[in-house]
Amino acid sequence: MTQISITKPDDWHLHFRDGEMLNETVPATARCFKRAIVMPNLVPPVTTKAQALSYRNRILQASDVDSFTPLMTLYLTNETTPSMIKEAVSEEIPAAKLYPAGATTNSDAAVSGIEALYPVFESMSDAGMLLLIHGEVTDSHVDIFDREKLFIEQHLAPIHDRFPDLKIVFEHITTADAADFVLSCDQHVAATITPQHLLLNRNDLLVGGIRPHNYCLPVLKRNVHQRRLQEVVSSGSSKFFLGTDSAPHTKHTKESACGCAGCYSAWSAIELYAQIFDDLGALDKLEGFASHHGPDFYGLSRNSGHITLTKTSWRVPEKITLKNGDDIVPFYAGQELNWKLST
Ligand code: DOR
Ligand code: ZN
Known about the structure:
By secondary structure, this protein is of the alpha/beta class. About 35% of the residues lie in helices and about 15% in strands. The chain contains twelve helices and 13 strands. Helix 1 crosses helix 2. The structure holds (4S)-2,6-dioxohexahydropyrimidine-4-carboxylic acid and zinc ion (ZN). Zinc ion (ZN) binds near residues 13, 15, 39 and 245.
């Protein structure tokens, strides 16, 4: 097959950042995605309805495409109350994000006793607001490669048992344990999967030298976990959908003695997914993953337009230079891809 056309896709997990950076990140996503679930881990985080709506306006101003729709999320903290949820839940703010404190970039303000948030989860369940979870424990004694698996046992399974009607998205899953947990749950639990976790494993981070541009959180895992993620997306299961976790950091903050976590994949995301599904012999499952399963789970309508991808080779740029002179190294920089979005 040399060309495919799919329903216009959505990105169910990404980081736009704020300020000048929006002029870079928003057009990159709006070039092919109709909607995107926007992560709230700004500094300070987006914790209230007013902050989310004002952030939404800044994103809309930076979009060069009229039809792009940002879907906002609230950042849950120990100060979040059920009334803040009731006030915020809407078409514009369909979800809230749970970051365990210290789990990732700008998560210092996040939740330090997850059970303390149970009244908030109850109000989310009642209001039909989705709970998006960064599923890793953060205890310093737990090995970084085991943090997702332990989160399932210690927190995710108990939350799902206690709030069976709450829709939960287990974000950017990285392990066979997470994929199998999601498959074992009823229709209230689903997961997003990034391009990097399908394409790479921890050898791509550590063999032959540390590769800071492949460093993200949750960290890349063993190849058996990568293989299981590939299997579940190839199966066409509606419990898994596209969430790039595109997360820009400047070149100097990634290429550093203490480099930031995050892969900026927006300029190549849909093409990377097409290549992955093609290599897996599952190109017929791309549309479900990219364009159907997400809106179906969120209870939103599927998009009406289409995008076309053509089999043609191109090279991801080595760097992107922002107006202020900072460089960003995009995910897969300098490497060749064999699918391209047709304009
Ligand atoms: O790699 C990551 N980067 N994982 C996250 O969970 C957050 C993100 C970021 O904001 O940089
Ligand atoms: Zn993220």
